[in-house]
Amino acid sequence: KTNICIVAGDLIFDPNRITFMTLHFDAANHLHKDRKAFKLTNIYGNPARERFLMIYTKRQCSSIRNSFHKLLRDSVIGDDTSMLSNFIYDCSNHFHRAGANSDLGHPTRACLAILRRFAYENPYLLDQAEDEDDSLTSPSAEDAEDPSIREPLKKKRKHSQGGHTTKGEDFWSKVEMWFEARQKQWGDSWGTPGWTAYVCLTVWLHIKLT
Predict the structure, then answer these.
(1) Exposed, middle or buried by CB within 10 Å (0-12, 13-18, 19+), for 60?
(2) 53, 125, 155, 206: least buried by Cβ within 10 Å?
(3) Which of 160, 27, 22, 149 lies closest to 97 in space, CA to CA?
């Protein structure tokens, strides 16, 4: 669990990330690539173990997204709103493998400023956390005895606070849609005039408002 959370946290904190709902695929690829370092060599080659590792990875990535969403929400509304620099520090403390730091360069600053602006401009989404998907298929009796896949079976489905959120209507799904629309409008590179102007204005707004 710890390794999955570390990998997923580092991936979601990547300033170039604009897709969030498929985070578990990227995390799974990373775990497979570094399976020796993560001591997962006994997982791969066993279909049952691989299946339940993917299920467990998907669950942990859902939890990571909800944690990030909560940090974003609390940084822009409520009694504990924070300056951008403090938000960068808090996020890096939670997700950045290298640890907490409020000065991680312009790309990270720009990315987190964009996400905070999106949260601030779409307050109706701030309570739309996703359901943490624990939908598991029933294993065979032989698989159920395997300690490497037994832990996920103990979990029960956990819904987001405040009730069920329709698939595709949660905060991160809407963030993805926003990035997709902006890419079509301004292009894929952060260096295009459209993205450059938006990022500059966004960072300026954070400085002015704080």
Answers:
(1) buried
(2) 155
(3) 27
